[in-house]
Amino acid sequence: MPTSKLTKRTIDAVISPASKQLIYWDTEIKGFGLRVLPSGLKTFIVQYRNAEGIQRRMNLGRFGVLTVEQARDLARLKLAAVIVGQDPADEARQSRNAMTVAEMCDWYLTEARAGNILGRKNLPIKSSSLDMDESRIRTHIIPLLGKRVVKHLKIADVEQMQTDVKNGKTAKPRTGGRGGKATGGPGVAGRCVGTLQAIIGHAKHKGLLEVHPTHGARKLAGKKKTRRLSVTELELLGKAIAYAEANGENPVALGVLRTLLLTGYRREEAQAMQRHWLHADRGYVAFPDTKGGAQIRAIGPAAIRVVQLQGELAGNPHIFPSAVGSGPFTAASECLKRVCGLADISGVTPHTLRHTFGSVAGDLGFSELTIRAMLGHASQNVTQDYVHIDEALKLAVQRTSDEIERLLTSGRAKLQRLDCQTAFKRDPRSASKRDPLFG
């Protein structure tokens, strides 16, 4: 093959070969050359043998994009790396073939759903958690960083994604049967960072990465939910529930709402309760799975009465059964919106009812540690042969449940003193906030 010192003049004078490629080697730096194709394309290359004696050849860049001197300097750097045992061509190949963020997210979801990735307490990640992870991945992470190679990410890239999500850059209508719009915001932005950082951490643990490239990225602090129902609002809610019940509201949905108010359970826990989990004689519900794993949770007499009044549906084991199939009822949130509309109460979610239960317990003088146990934050695991709840905890749950029932009943009593036949003549689903019953 031709050899000469490569200069701009000699390269400009090169005539393209008629068929196969032709390589011109530089006489100044061994291994530095110029490849010329029949099409006229001229590319700088470097050739060497790695530490294992295998010959490698890699492109440095096109002539015209790189000058001869730039290409020569780059060749010196690559050959210097070879001297200390590196393999620049292999590193470039790995870089080209490295996982993108989108590919790593797909890997994570596949492996996690197969139970091959462990989460809290070294247990497989729950499907409900994976559903939320996948929603953040598809809605926010992949649109912003999906094409980026994970190993090349920087902390600034992750924090910029967080800023973009917070500012609504990925806002769009939801798909897959979910209503509303994904709007982003600080809370979602912080959770997206947490999800991505966890995925990269799992990939590193599984050997897909040598280092966590974005370790140390700062996550926006979430806004703590503090909304609770006041005494007056609990009375209004009791009145609204009684009116809704008398005017055709779904009794199963109302049963869920009453249970949430009287237990402090999470919405998913209350809706999914099955009859054989309830041990009414001993005052507890044995949940085989919750956010904190399998737990036993105290339940007071007031809530037990609500649960035991629920009608059974053949073939469905749930206390609050779906009208279709064998699954649980899942639309309590929509019922809560309608009832709160009747009472002219705003900003209420199922979590508000849970927070209200804990707050009422605090008003009654129970300690933070006791309240955490009442809400299932403290460890109350189910063992195979022994189930026990401290009697003091049962008493705390009962007193809190009784106080909330008293306030709800007070609202119902006020409704009964009104002339219901003239107060309302319409479906509660269309009730106006200015309804005369609620002032």
TrEMBL record:
Residues 176-186 have a biased composition (Gly residues). One of its GO terms (molecular function) is DNA binding. This is Integrase. It comes from Sphingopyxis panaciterrulae. Residues 224-399 form the Tyr recombinase domain. Keywords: DNA integration, DNA recombination, DNA-binding. Pfam families: Arm-DNA-bind_3 (PF13356), Phage_integrase (PF00589). Residues 165-186 are annotated as: Disordered. PANTHER family: PROPHAGE INTEGRASE (PTHR30629), PROPHAGE INTEGRASE INTS-RELATED (PTHR30629:SF2). Belongs to the 'phage' integrase family. Gene3D superfamilies: 1.10.150.130, Integrase, DNA-binding domain, Intergrase catalytic core. One of its GO terms (biological process) is DNA recombination.
